[in-house]
Amino acid sequence: MMKLWFFVLILLISAQGFAIDDHQLANPEQQKTYEIIISELRCLVCQNQTIADSNAELASDLRRQVFEMLQQGKSKEDIIQFMTDRYGDFVLYNPPLKTKTALLWLGPIAFLITGFIMIFWFIRRKKTAAIMPIDKDKQEKMRRLLSENNESSAENGDQS
Amino acid sequence: MLKYIIPLILFIVLAVFLALGLKGKPGEIPSPLLNKPAPAFSAPKLNVPNEKLSPADLKGKVWLFNVWASWCVSCRAEHPIINQLAQQQAAIIIGLNYKDDPEAAKKWLATLGNPYNDSVMDADGRIGIDWGVYGVPETFVMDKQGIVRYKHTGPVTEEDVQNTFIPLIAKLQAEP
């Protein structure tokens, strides 16, 4: 039991450690918007992190920017527009569907469809390969052997 | 026949994608500022803090905007190249002293040479955000109309100067 409490305590402390951000908006609704926005913007220095996750200086500057714009009463759309005007669509973790980004969005679907077509094609090829043509002589021989076997087994069955 | 052609096609497609992957520079993000007016600011000069400079003051001139800081290691590597470029006097070079301590910045210029016609201070990085700066050093080229015509991310090399900057500046100087 003691161990469990210790574990919980450690978890609580570490959760505090994870919060690298100290911005707090008075309005809980705005605070939520703030958290959503910073988790949708890419940190351009460390490209695979959002600005919410990153400790980089630029990420902290961008968080401050988002925070201040929300305080000024700007909407989420205004802030996203502000960021893309300066850093391009790359700053968004979910880039918009445009002709430029079409490959990005449709590429995976195209690969999936290609995969299905290939699976279908391979299965069909396997099936046709399994059916082997047999000539008439062999067919006749096969039938004879089978019927002989049937008769003998029937006789055996009578005896037992 | 199909048995050989399909793997060959798959191989070629894969090879092309891998080759493109080798050539691409994931660190370089295309700037949305290209062919748009230079973002406005009015910032104190590093050497004369009570005087301000803004891009509007440079209308009618071709100018370079070089983002630097004394804490930036790549800027130190780039600095001799910027000095050389300044000696050619092909264009005005303005420095953006990004998130730096003014004293350290002045000392840096005194030791390594000052290629800038002027440097402006961006103590809290706000001008940097307006210009979409994400990796110091960065260099922008503006034409006489104050339009951003080129952006270079990372240290400028001698090759960049010869192959890109000098021809571009010459072209922009010839424009009205």
Concise description?
Chain A is an all-alpha fold and 160 residues long. Chain A has helices at 2-18, 28-38, 57-71, 76-87, 102-130, 136-159.
Characterise the protein shown here.
The complex is a heterodimer of chains A (160) and B (176). Chain A is mainly α and 160 residues long. Chain A is 68% helix and 0% strand. In chain A, helix 2 (28-38) packs antiparallel against helix 3. The model of chain A has no long low-confidence stretch (mean pLDDT 83). With 176 residues, chain B is α/β, with parallel strands linked by helices. Chain B is built from 5 helices and 7 strands. Chain B has helices spanning 2-23, 73-87, 102-112, 126-130, 158-174; strands at 43-44, 52-53, 63-68, 92-98, 118-122, 138-142, 148-153. In chain B, strands 5-4-3-6-7 form a 5-stranded mixed β-sheet. The longest helix of chain B is centred in the first third of the chain and has 22 residues, at 2-23. Chain B is elongated, with a radius of gyration of 20 Å.
